Amino acid sequence: QVQLVESGGGLVQAGGSLRLSCAASGSRVTIAAMGWYRQAPGKQRELVAANTRGGTTTYADPVKGRFTISRDNAQNTVYLQMNSLKPEDTAVYYCYAGPRIGAPGYWGQGTQVTVSS
C-alpha cells in the first residue's frame, strides 16, 4: 500500500507562484510514474503533468511553459512548480502514483489551489 501526502496549495493572486509537493510512503514497490491531476468545480479530473522514473515528462497544453514537474526518486517525492498562475488554474490538485499515467494507482487527498484575479 502506498500513501501520498500533498502540501503546498493555497490562495495566490494571478501571476503568482505556488509549489506543490507530494511524498509517497508505505511501500517498497518502485513507483514508475508520478504526476499531478486537477479537478475544477463542475469539470472532470484532468492530467496536469506527469513524470516517469526514467525522466520522461508530460504536460497538459494549458500549463506548458508555466508549470514544471520534478521528481526526487530517492525520496519518492514529486513537485509541481506553478508560475504565472491564472484564475483558470483554480482547482483541487491531486497527486498520482502508479505503474503508468492512466492506469489504476494511488491518489493523494487533494490540495486546493485558488488563483484570484
List keywords for this structure.
single chain, 117 residues, mainly beta, seven-stranded mixed sheet, four-stranded antiparallel sheet, globular
Describe the structure.
Strands 2, 4, 5, 6, 9, 10 and 11 form a seven-stranded mixed beta sheet that branches. This protein has a four-stranded antiparallel beta sheet with strand order 1-3-8-7, with no helix packed on it. Helices cover 0% and strands 53% of the residues. With 117 residues, the protein is mainly beta. The model has no long low-confidence stretch (mean pLDDT 93).
Brief characterization of the structure:
The chain has 117 residues and is mostly beta strands.
Query: Considering DSSP H and I runs of 4 or more, what fraction of the residues is helical?
Result: under 10%
- How far from one another are the termini? 40 Å
Rg over CA atoms: 13 Å
Please provide the count of β strands: 11
How is the biggest beta sheet arranged? Answer: 7 strands, mixed
Alpha-beta content class:
mainly beta
Unreliable stretches (pLDDT < 50, length at least 5) are: none
The global form is globular
Number of helices: 0
Average pLDDT value?
A: 93
Chain-wise SSE layout:
Blueprint: E1 3-7, E2 10-13, E3 18-25, E4 33-39, E5 46-52, E6 57-59, E7 67-72, E8 77-82, E9 91-98, E10 106-107, E11 111-116
Parallel strand pairs: 2-11
Antiparallel strand pairs: 1-3, 3-8, 4-5, 4-9, 5-6, 7-8, 9-10, 9-11
